[in-house]
Design brief:
- The protein is of the alpha/beta class.
- It folds into 2 domains: 159 residues, Rhodanese-like domain (Oxidized Rhodanese, domain 1, 3-Layer(aba) Sandwich), CATH 3.40.250.10; 121 residues, Oxidized Rhodanese, domain 1, CATH 3.40.250.10.
- The chain has 11 helices and 12 strands.
- The chain has a 5-stranded parallel β-sheet. It has a 3-stranded parallel β-sheet with strand order 10-9-11.
- Helix 5 crosses helix 10.
- The longest helix is centred in the middle third of the chain and has 12 residues.
- This is Thiosulfate sulfurtransferase isoform X1.
- It comes from Aplysia californica.
């Protein structure tokens, strides 16, 4: 592993080895972590009444991990018209991650117990705020347990981190920028929604004219791990996406688009921006002529 290019994904075996290297001896039964590594359980559901910390994290998690709450970190974000999940403001993000003991030199590992939506969203947010030292645990908690590693209910002690934000606006696209792109076609657009939503099976479905479809689920194997690089490359090739050219990722709410951006990152495509408002905003704001259906632009 190089200093300049940490992997997008890490394996459970690699993580287990790193946990041994980066943990201090326990004191009074407590695990104390060095700031060089932070493992974040990002398990999340969109229902506002579900507390992920109580419902998921306290039930069981990877030893030495902390809970990263996407709902809490986004509370002070600016939604804008139609955006379901706001981007946090810089001060909120900085304060939140520092409370988790994260500094600019910390390697952050994100995982969850479901389908990797929140893990890749977390990966994207850290990169958006200037932190490249972030990876996703391939296969998440499911793979961790499958590989025979244990879980716990214990929580580690951490010291406050020192995190300086370097916000990267070039990793976001707005509605106006996407509208302009429909005519200019300066950037390719890939949509991570399911095929039925993309082609417009229902009246509230459809897609941005000119966009191509790589469904979120197609990025993964049946066991929840990410497909091989050659298989990921085929996904882009099969829909006519050229990774040597500019690319934007979108979806329904800005969540699963992050996984497609990560798939491109695995293939060496740096800095794929995400349209955070995604089709939720597009459908609310765009003229009906700007909503393509049945695969016809």
């Amino acid at each position: 592993m190089t200093i300049n290019r940490l992997p997008t994904l890490v394996s459970t075996t690699w993580l287990k080895q790193q946990m041994c290297r980066h943990s201090n001896p326990s004191i009074a039964g407590k695990i104390t972590l060095r700031r060089s590594l932070r493992i974040l359980d990002t398990s999340w559901t969109p229902e506002p009444e579900v507390d992920g910390y109580k419902t998921f994290f306290k039930e069981a998690h990877i030893p030495s991990s902390l809970y990263f709450d996407l709902k809490q970190v986004q509370t002070s974000g600016q939604k804008g018209p139609g955006a379901k999940f706001p981007i946090p403001d810089s001060n909120r993000f900085q304060d939140y991650v520092e409370d988790l003991g994260i500094s600019n030199d910390t390697h952050v590992i994100a995982y969850d117990r479901f389908n990797s939506r929140p893990s890749f969203r977390t990966w994207f947010l850290f990169r958006l705020f200037g932190h490249d030292k972030v990876s996703v645990l391939n296969g998440g908690l499911r793979q961790w347990v499958t590989d025979g590693y244990h879980v716990t209910v214990d929580e580690p002690d951490v010291e406050e981190g020192e995190f300086e934000v370097n916000f990267r606006p070039h990793l976001l696209r707005s509605y106006d920028e996407m509208l302009k792109n429909v005519n200019s076609q300066a950037e390719q657009v890939v949509d991570a929604r399911g095929r039925g939503n993309f082609v417009g099976e229902n009246e509230n479905d459809g897609h941005i004219p000119g966009s191509k479809n790589i469904p979120f689920g197609s990025v993964f194997n049946d066991d929840g791990t990410v497909k091989s690089s050659s298989e990921l490359q085929k996904l882009f090739d099969n829909v006519g996406i050229d990774l040597s050219k500019p690319l934007v990722s979108t979806c329904q709410t800005g969540m699963t688009a992050c996984a497609v951006a990560a798939a491109a990152h695995i293939l060496g495509k740096e800095d794929v921006p995400v349209y955070n408002g995604s089709f939720t905003e597009w459908f609310q704001r765009a003229d009906s002529s700007m909503i393509a259906r049945q695969g016809k632009d």
